[in-house]
Structures are given as C-alpha cells and as structure tokens.
C-alpha cells in the first residue's frame, strides 16, 4: 500500500485498512493510516499542480479594462455602504454587459475590472465584440452617473475603458481561473488610464481588427510599458451604420494593385454586365466566391465594387454579413441585410428599430397594395427577424402559426427587392460576406429568393469558405449559380505580389 500513488487507489487502501482495525489493532492501523494520508495529500497536490500546468495556454485575445472615474471623491462624500453599493452595482452590470458580448471577466480590483474576448475559443470578431462591449460600458457609466447625480447630488461619476489585441498567457499559477500574463495586459491598462472620462481608447493592434466598423479619432502616439516604440491609439466614438469589415491583411500604408486574380475578377464583371447592362439580360444571377480564410475573397470583392462603382449604370445595393454569432440566431443574416439597408444600428432602441424598418418597407408596397397591407408586410418581416411586433393587429391572429409567418415574411422580403427595382428602374446588387457563418433559416430564404425573383435583374455575390457546402450543397434553391474558387497564389503570382509590395 505504501507504493500506491494514485489518489483513488490510496483512498481505497485507507478504507481497506480501516476495515482491518479489529484484526490488526489500533496502533498498527493508525500508523499505516498516517503514512497513507500523507501520500494522499501529496497525490492531490500533484494532481492540482498538473491541472494548473495543463490549463495554461497562450492565446490571441482582446483585453478590455474598465475603471470607475471619481470613485475616490465619491467615497469621501458618501457612507461606505452607499459608495460600495454604487461600485458593486456598476461592476455587476458591467459584468453582465461583457458576458452579453461573449466576453469573460477575469479579475476585479477595487473599482475596476479586466475582461477578455477570445479566452475559451478565438473568433474572427473577438476584437469587434470587445469594442462594442466597450461602447456599451460607456453607456452604462453614463446611466449610473445620472443615477448618482440624481440620488446623491454628486457629479463626475463615470467610467473609462481601454482595449488592446495581442497574445497573453491564460491560466496557471495561484489564481488559475483569473490568471493572465503578458505585455498585452499592460497595453489595455495604459489605454484605459489615458482615456478621458466617458471614453474608450483602443490600441493600433485592435484598430487593425475593427477598422471600417467604427468611427474613430486618431490620437498622438504614446509610450506603453513593455514596448520600445510609441504606439498610435484611437478614441472610439460610435458604431458606423451597417458596414463591411475592412480587411487588416497586407502591409498597412501600402496600396497595391490586385495580383493573380484577373480571371476571377473578369468573371464577376461578366456577371455584372449580363444582368446590369440594359437590354443584355433580365435574369437573376448568383456568384459564389469560395476560398479558405486569408486567400483573397474580400480583396476580390473590393476590386469588383471599385470597378462597378466607376460604371455609368445605376443600381441599388444591399449588403449582409454573417458572423459566428449569427449562425445561432434565426434569420440573423436576413436581419443584417435589412439593418444595413435601412440604417438600423445595434444601439437603436426596439421602438426606433421598428420605426426605421416600417418607414423603409411600407412605402415600397403602398402604391400597389395600399397602406394597410404595406404595413402588414413591414410588421411580418420585422417580426420574422426578431423585432417585437407581436402586439400588431397584423401579427396577433397568426402569432402561433410560425409556418405562415415564415412564408409571408419570405414573400415580403423577396418582393422588397422587386419593389426597389421598380421604384428606381435600376437593377439590384446583393453582396453577402462570410456566408459560411449564415444561420439555417437565412439560407432557407436565399434558396427561395432565386426562384421567386428569377425574372428580376438582380445579381447576388456571396463570399464563403468551402465549409458552407458541407452544410448546403445547393445554396441558391436550384438556380444555376457560378462558383468561383480562389486558390493560394502560385509561384509567379507570389513573385509579382512581392515585387508590387517592394
């Protein structure tokens, strides 16, 4: 028994020895138990140590710091119970906000907190969600500041937030669950400390992940502990209305021509000309650009948009972008298409979002269907994508009939494109990014869109990874669509790109 090192086996040996007490006597049993218990303690300690070591991992994350502004002054003016109640209430609300954006709070320190986005699983939008969470935390700080002002007559209560993207070591050590180490932890702390009250400052590394998505104000370069050179930072002012992410690949500050994708660009241009040049064609067309991450889908679409924008023909544009989060949100991609078109922002209240949707949809149908039916189309489509129209007289009678709501909502969405075309007398261009993340109901809609608008001058361009076709062999509902596969640049293309950069 003294040679046993497994905790479970030691516990079994202890129980067996206890059962022999009447036969062996107390002295012998107690002596044996003392040795076994020492070995059990050592075994458990070793197991815990190994667990801590195996839980350590180096990850690329976005770290967010929040600190309460004016806490010291407030503590001087209020009773300790009232002051701590305010601080704890804000930190509890801040934690819930971070979690709502799929972040994880690792540490609390007095009147501040540290959160990480991408701790358990890295996602392409970790930095975006962190910045969105930061803006939501600023709103939270203003709300609590107004409450403190109203109840205690104290002004100046607010928060400031900093964020940075980089590599950190998570886990291990005494505080395994909340342990985080690395230079990337000092940087967001400096971002927060130097941010004005009520502001969010991000590093250039985070900016590279989110540029194009937020309104930013560049700040003078500043020194940060652990970095030899000053870094550029930005104050985040607001979320930009429904925009595509600007890819952060390549060498920043260097604009190059597109290399090695001439044939693929020409294919998109031909599809445009067939559908959009008056008299050439009046048929719905779809193109799916397929490639793994980083191969050049976004750059190809960017070049196509620049080419199409320089053309003399007028056309109406819709956009939609799926994310890892929308994959689990029914009609998430369809909602994004409508939100981009009608400028419905994530920060809009439910009432404002409903009003924007109704004001965008109903006028498209009024001339042919009348005001009442036009409103019904808007309410049905809004209810389908998750806006709260259940009190509407158009929704109440069919509230329990999800199949009818889906069918009529799909019809309204498909007709929306047709009505936009009829009002503008211009073809329609629908650009869809990251289709591999699209939710199943939105893919169901795309499968019905092509047959419903087969005679409409409409071009849909979707960007996707090959994994999309593992879920859906037929994305466009039987409509013949062109698939454009991108492969990594060959030797000559790589040399041309290097020469272009140099």
Describe the structure.
- This protein has 16 helices and 13 strands.
- The radius of gyration is 29 Å and the shape is globular.
- It has helices spanning 7-19, 21-24, 26-55, 71-77, 80-100, 126-152, 183-194, 204-210, 262-276, 297-309, 332-341, 350-384, 402-424, 440-452, 468-471, 491-501; strands at residues 57-69, 104-109, 112-117, 158-170, 180-181, 200-203, 214-222, 231-239, 285-290, 316-321, 428-433, 458-464, 482-485.
- The strands form two sheets. Strands 1, 2, 3, 4, 5, 6, 7 and 8 form an eight-stranded mixed β-sheet that branches. Strands 10-11-12-9-13 form a five-stranded parallel β-sheet.
Structural topology:
Elements lengths: L6 H13 L1 H4 L1 H30 L1 E13 L1 H7 L2 H21 L3 E6 L2 E6 L8 H27 L5 E13 L9 E2 L1 H12 L5 E4 H7 L3 E9 L8 E9 L22 H15 L8 E6 L6 H13 L6 E6 L10 H10 L8 H35 L17 H23 L3 E6 L6 H13 L5 E7 L3 H4 L10 E4 L5 H11 L1
Helix pairs in contact: 1-3, 5-6, 9-10, 12-13, 13-14
């Amino acid at each position: 028994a003294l040679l046993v090192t497994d905790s479970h086996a030691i516990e079994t040996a202890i129980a067996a020895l206890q059962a022999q007490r009447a036969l062996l006597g107390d002295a012998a049993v107690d002596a044996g138990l003392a040795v076994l218990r020492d070995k059990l303690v050592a075994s458990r300690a070793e197991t815990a140590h190994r667990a801590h070591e195996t839980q350590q991992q180096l990850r690329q994350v976005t770290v967010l710091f929040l600190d309460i502004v004016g806490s010291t002054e407030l503590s001087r003016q209020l009773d300790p119970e009232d002051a701590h109640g305010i601080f704890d209430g804000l930190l509890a609300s801040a934690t819930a906000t971070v979690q709502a954006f799929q972040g994880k709070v690792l540490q609390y320190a007095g009147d501040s907190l540290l959160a990480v986005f991408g701790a358990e699983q890295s996602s392409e939008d970790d930095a975006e969600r962190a910045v969105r969470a930061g803006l939501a935390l600023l709103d939270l700080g203003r709300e609590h500041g107004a409450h403190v002002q109203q109840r205690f007559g104290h002004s100046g209560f607010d928060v400031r937030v900093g964020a940075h993207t980089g590599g950190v070591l998570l886990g291990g050590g005494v505080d395994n669950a909340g342990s985080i180490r690395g230079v990337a932890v000092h940087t967001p702390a400096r971002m927060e400390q130097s941010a004005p009250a009520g502001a969010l400052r991000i590093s250039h590394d985070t900016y590279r992940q989110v540029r194009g998505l937020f309104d930013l104000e560049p700040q003078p370069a500043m020194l940060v502990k652990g970095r030899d050179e000053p870094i550029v930072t930005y104050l985040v002012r607001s979320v930009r209305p429904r925009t595509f992410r600007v890819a952060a690949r390549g060498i920043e500050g260097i604009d190059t021509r597109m290399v090695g994708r001439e044939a693929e660009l020409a294919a998109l241009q031909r599809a445009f000309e067939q559908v959009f040049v008056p008299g050439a064609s009046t048929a719905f067309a779809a193109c799916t650009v397929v490639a793994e991450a980083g191969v050049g889908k976004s750059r190809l679409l960017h070049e196509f948009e620049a080419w199409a924008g320089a053309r003399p023909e007028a056309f109406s544009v819709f956009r939609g972008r799926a994310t890892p989060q929308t994959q689990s949100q029914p009609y998430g991609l369809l909602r994004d298409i409508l939100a981009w078109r009608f400028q419905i922002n994530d920060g809009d209240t439910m009432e404002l979002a409903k009003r924007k949707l109704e004001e965008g949809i109903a006028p498209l149908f009024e001339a042919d269907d009348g005001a009442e039916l036009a409103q019904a189309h808007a309410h049905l489509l809004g209810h389908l994508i998750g806006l709260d129209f259940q009190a509407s007289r158009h929704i109440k009678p069919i509230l329990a009939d999800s199949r009818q709501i889906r069918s009529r909502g799909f019809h309204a969405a498909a007709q929306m494109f047709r009505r936009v075309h009829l009002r503008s007398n211009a073809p329609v261009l629908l650009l869809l990014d990251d289709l591999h993340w699209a939710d199943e109901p939105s893919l169901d809609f795309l499968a019905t869109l092509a047959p419903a608008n087969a005679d409409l001058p409409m071009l849909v361009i979707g960007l996707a990874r090959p994994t999309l076709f593992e879920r859906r062999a037929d994305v466009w509902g039987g409509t013949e669509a062109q698939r454009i596969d991108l492969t990594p640049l060959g030797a000559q293309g790589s040399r041309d790109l290097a020469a272009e950069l140099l």
